[in-house]
């Protein structure tokens, strides 16, 4: 396994670069890289260019990050701040923590008190900007585009101001709060994310005496209307599912149902605003006539997304972190060249060898290991998982959009939960999950240490999201990318090239 230097995925605008073989002599002559050569489009798909907002628009915010290191310094009503810290403490994986079966052991009082939770850069910036007072018109619509690296705490970056505004409005209006209404909406693209975000929202709403509701494929309309009549403070759903409410007679019009929504979050926004989703997302926003805050949230700003938000919301306020578009520092990135012996071009052999090496490398001692393998195509997933199981005897699950939602949920649960502690003298076990990009977005896998990219991702956006399933919130992690001579000349250099910011001609 040739060690490739770990790299930081900088804002690569139009990543089109000369073809060269990283290990060949020419690569040593960095000079060739200094002067952009004739562009040879990147062979595997075209690396969508990633955009950064103009530096002057965000530099003030970046300076703020160094000055604030406690939630007490941020404008949050006390109950929201306490509920936030409590939920993060409960979900933090303690190194020393002993695990009973697959559920997480409740932390002792001392462990909870020993945990210091500081705001991450994106949380400092978002809470500061979104909670700033509207000087002129109290009801003016403000649109924000939040973008920060994977695993950097974006979920709480948008939930903190959302809960702060809900509680502040309640304190101001007292008990006169109208019943039948929805006050805020969080939109995400997949059922797994609806489930994950709704779990966090529901646990916090309990502490804040608010009502959360998850409207998803397995929800029932009668139950929804009951919750609506009793006031829904935070609704978590997908755009399509929200639009589907239109077909019910009891709803009347979506405009009336969403008349009370003042705060809307579009998470994984680069997905929800791309051509296959934008109609539903836009239709939902158009039906929210009392909107005051709209937050687009993403780990990447592809140029397409940049264009769409500029077109629809030219005055949107950018909130980004200095590490945007970078693979977290804690992640080691390595290439595995399947073209060299003994694999001789067989990627499945290279994959099996990587899994064998991970299984026996002595890391994660005492815990069951879990590895996530990403492929570009669904059919590839099924083929690979069958071969890993039959030929190499792995404990492997394969997941695809064909699976029913509850089947998908049960397959990924062992990867979302804490690592299982092995019984005394129990031999090392390892679970493998083979999937496509369906799970690459936003899923907060717990303590996953190894991700293998069986195929080279077609775009830098996919690369960022897949790699970001490990190394979350400064935890360690490794990403192995299987390459072959066919793409080797480009891909072997990928980590270097994307780290090397091509000087525009
Ligand atoms: N201030 C904090 N301190 C410590 N841990 C935190 C903090 N904020 C969030 N976390 C934890 O970090 C993990 C990742 O958070 P989250 O899922 O919001 O990341 P993200 O930026 O949305 O990632 P992605 O881009 O993949 O969606 C979660 O387990 C969360 O509980």
UniProtKB/TrEMBL annotation:
InterPro entries: DEAD/DEAH_box_helicase_dom (IPR011545), Helicase_ATP-bd (IPR014001), Helicase_C-like (IPR001650), P-loop_NTPase (IPR027417). Keywords: ATP-binding, Helicase, Hydrolase, Nucleotide-binding. Residues 350-505 form the Helicase C-terminal domain. SMART domains: DEXDc (SM00487), HELICc (SM00490). It catalyses: ATP + H2O = ADP + phosphate + H(+). The keyword Nucleotide-binding applies. PROSITE patterns: HELICASE_ATP_BIND_1 (PS51192), HELICASE_CTER (PS51194). This is RNA helicase. It comes from Komagataella pastoris (Yeast). The gene is MRH4.
């Amino acid at each position: 396994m040739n060690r490739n230097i770990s790299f930081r995925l900088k804002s690569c605008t139009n990543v089109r670069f000369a073809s060269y073989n990283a290990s060949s002599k020419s690569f040593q002559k960095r000079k060739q890289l200094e002067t952009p050569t004739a562009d040879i489009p990147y062979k595997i798909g075209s690396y969508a260019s990633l955009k950064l907002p103009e530096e002057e628009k965000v530099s003030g915010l970046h300076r703020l990050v160094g000055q604030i290191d406690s939630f007490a310094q941020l404008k949050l009503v006390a109950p929201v701040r306490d509920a936030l810290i409590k939920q993060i403490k409960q979900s933090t994986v303690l190194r020393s923590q002993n695990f009973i079966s697959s559920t997480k052991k409740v932390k002792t009082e001392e462990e909870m008190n020993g945990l210091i939770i500081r705001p991450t850069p994106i949380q400092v910036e978002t809470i500061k900007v979104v909670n700033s007072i509207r000087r002129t018109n109290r009801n003016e619509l403000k649109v924000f585009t939040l973008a920060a690296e994977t695993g950097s705490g974006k979920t709480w970056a948008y939930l903190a101001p959302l809960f702060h505004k809900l509680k502040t409005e309640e304190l101001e209006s007292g008990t006169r709060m109208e019943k039948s209404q929805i006050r805020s909406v969080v939109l995400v693209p997949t059922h797994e994310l609806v489930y994950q975000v709704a779990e966090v929202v529901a646990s916090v709403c309990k502490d804040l005496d608010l009502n959360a509701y998850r409207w998803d494929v397995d929800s029932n309309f009668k139950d929804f209307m009951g919750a609506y009549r009793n006031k829904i403070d935070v609704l978590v759903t997908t755009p399509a599912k929200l639009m589907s409410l239109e077909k019910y007679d009891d709803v009347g019009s979506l405009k009336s149902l969403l008349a009370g929504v003042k705060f809307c979050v579009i998470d994984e926004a680069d997905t929800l605003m791309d051509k296959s989703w934008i109609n539903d997302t836009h239709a939902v926003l158009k039906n929210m006539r009392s909107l005051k805050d709209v937050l687009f949230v993403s780990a990447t700003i592809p140029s397409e997304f940049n264009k769409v938000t500029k077109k629809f919301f030219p005055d949107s306020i950018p909130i980004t972190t200095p590490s945007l578009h970078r693979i977290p520092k804690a992640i080691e990135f390595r290439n595995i060249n399947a073209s060299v012996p003994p694999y001789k071009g067989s990627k499945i052999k290279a994959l099996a060898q990587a899994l064998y090496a991970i299984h026996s490398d002595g890391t994660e001692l005492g815990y069951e290991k879990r590895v996530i393998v990403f492929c570009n195509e669904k059919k590839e997933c099924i083929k690979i998982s069958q071969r890993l199981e039959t030929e190499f005897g792995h404990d492997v699950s394969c997941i695809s959009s064909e699976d029913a939602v509850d089947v998908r949920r049960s397959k990924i649960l062992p990867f979302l939960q804490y690592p299982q502690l092995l019984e005394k003298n129990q031999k090392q076990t390892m679970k493998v999950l083979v999937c496509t990009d369906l799970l690459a977005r936003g899923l907060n896998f717990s303590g996953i240490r190894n991700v293998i990219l069986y195929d080279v991702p077609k775009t830098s956006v996919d690369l960022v999201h897949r790699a970001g399933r490990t190394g979350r919130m400064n935890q360690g992690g490794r990403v192995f990318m299987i390459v072959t001579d066919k793409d080797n000349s480009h891909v072997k250099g990928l980590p270097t090239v994307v780290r090397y910011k091509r000087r525009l001609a």
